[in-house]
Amino acid sequence: MIATAWRVFGIAFSLAVIVAAAILAGTEPGQYQFATALAGDQVIGFGVRTDDLTAYMLAVVGVVATCVQVYSIGYLHHEPRIAPYTALVTLFTAAMVSVVVADSLFLLLIGWEVMGVCSYLLISHYWERRDARSGAVKAFLMTRLGDVGFLFGIFVLGFAAKTFTISELDPAKIPPGALTAGTLLLLVGVVGKSAQVPLQTWLPDAMPGPSPVSALIHAATMVAAGVFLIARLYDVFAAAETTFTVLAIVAAITMVFAALCASAAVEVKRVLAWSTVSQLAIMFAGLSLGSEKGRHAALFHLLTHAAFKALLFLCAGVLLHQVGSAALVVLRRYTRRGALRKAMPVTFVTMTIGLAALAGVPGFAGFFSKDAVVEAAWSTARNGSAVGWIVLVAVCLTAVLTAFYCVRLWLWVFFRTPALAGALGAFEEEEAMADLDEPDTSGLRDGSLLMLIPLGVLALGAIGLGYVEGLHLNLGVGLLTLVLAIVGAMPAYSLWQRGADPRPELLEREFGVDSFYDKAVVTPARWFARLAVAGDRDVIGGYVRGFGRTGTLVSQGFRLLQTGNVQTYLTAAVVGVVALAILAGVIGA
């Protein structure tokens, strides 16, 4: 199974390189239809296409997925479930590739839904854990909820345009009402798949899955599919101004909301998960500007984010693999004296690179791509666009918060804690203060070579990918984002130096959204479920049982008549004849 998966990945990666090389060499984009179906008088075609966006996304998916597969061999080498895991990761990647190459809305939908099923199975890889099972179910239900709107959006646009072929969708030929309704319905699916407000809570709860799965979901597949979809249908979405306004508002709320949640999270992977939600919102914000500059900036940030976010999750996987916990404060006996930094230097360096790119430190990839979004927002805002101002303010505030939680995470995990007073919040102080001696780090190491090679490759991407567009950097915007990063980093450093890690209850509870959903959705659903069970058991089941018992009683009555006595039968016959005769006489009179 593993050998077969490697062959598949080798072929897929080679094809991605060939397609990218062909596009870069100037080969004209092309489409190929391989099947058609009829729905009434509507022809539904299934086809694929190759263009610059296809090559771009294939490169992202191919590189990250290959790194994840190589890393997984070292990470799960003792796992008894390595074969099904490898098969699911391969299918997951193939589903994302189907989304990328699709020139049919229905082919795209197939890949979209297969990704949802694979994510459910991969998140619940450790199915014996309750949090893994519940996280998988939550992810499945919330993304399926969004996919209902996605499916209806496909119907609205396809029937309005009289085609389901993506390259043939012409917004000028679609009635304005159908265009707005169709794109808004597609946006519902995008919001669910990419964990944007109000369907954002599933992604942080998907962290019980293996760390390589988290890297794949957060960097190159699943959540990135929503950004790709809007970029693919950009002309259609751009023609629906209302949809882009809604997208800008959702993105602005989401990026700030998720960054605040990340600032209070106490688990490494949960911090990174909320960071993904926030960074995806930045991409959507760039797309919502409705300009080619905004689209380019969003896709550029998608590229750099794939590198540094995959790197960060794989580094978190090394920590989890070696220490046994991904929680910030559970690592305390190692962090008090900087033990992890000393025992795991490669992980420390690569995770530092990933956090620097995420925080937007100058010279790293995230700095350039985030600045591209800010510059695009500023260009739109100074033309009097309200959407531009919304995006600009939200991205700048998010940049401050991002620098804060990146520095907080970096210092608390890798450096000696000067003091511990007030730092652990809900964790018991006496437990935190136990074992103050130098911890035993003899068992800690960076991991196998198969785990370190992908870290090195992704670290190079987290640095070098920024220079693809680095020559076009706006110095004014760069200075602004640098100041914002410093403003965010300073309080994180100050709190760490004082050994304090305050987490307001509202942020620690992640604004109580899960509690609200529990009361507003889960509890009523359970009540209706109990009502349905009671109705089925006591009403419908009562009728069924009543008919059964009536039949039984009737049969028992007839059985009493079957005595086997001939005299009794003759008496009954005579009585019956006499009764019939009397009845006939009465009727005749």
Describe the structure.
There is one protein chain. By secondary structure, the chain is mainly alpha-helical. Among the domains are: 241-506, no CATH class; 519-588, no CATH class. Helix content is 72%, strand content 3%. The protein is built from 23 helices and 2 strands. A two-stranded antiparallel sheet has the order 1-2. A hairpin with a 2-residue loop joins strand 1 (30-39) and strand 2 (42-50). Helix 2 (52-75) runs parallel beside helix 12 (292-323), helix 3 packs antiparallel against helix 4 (105-123) and helix 8 (223-232) runs antiparallel to helix 12 (292-323). Residues 421-438 have low confidence and may be disordered.
Largest beta-sheet characterization: 2 strands, antiparallel
Helix share, percent? over 70%
What is the ordering of alpha helices and beta strands? HEEHHHHHHHHHHHHHHHHHHHHHH
Arithmetic mean pLDDT: 84
- Pairing-aware structural class of the strands and helices? mainly alpha
* Rg calc: 31 Å
How many angstroms does the end-to-end distance come to?
A: 93 Å
Q: Name the beta content range.
A: under 5%
Number of helices: 23
Strand order in space, largest sheet: 1-2
Q: How many E strands?
A: 2
Indicate the overall shape: elongated
Q: Are there runs of 5+ residues with pLDDT below 50, and where? A: 421-438
Walk me through the topology.
Blueprint: H1 2-24, E1 30-39, E2 42-50, H2 52-75, H3 82-101, H4 105-123, H5 130-161, H6 176-193, H7 211-219, H8 223-232, H9 234-238, H10 241-264, H11 268-288, H12 292-323, H13 332-335, H14 339-343, H15 345-359, H16 365-381, H17 386-414, H18 429-433, H19 449-464, H20 475-497, H21 505-508, H22 513-561, H23 566-588
Antiparallel strand pairs: 1-2
Helix pairs in contact: 1-2, 1-3, 2-3, 2-7, 2-12, 2-19, 3-4, 4-5, 5-6, 6-8, 6-10, 7-12, 8-11, 8-12, 10-11, 10-17, 11-12, 11-16, 11-17, 12-15, 12-16, 12-19, 15-17, 15-19, 16-17, 17-20
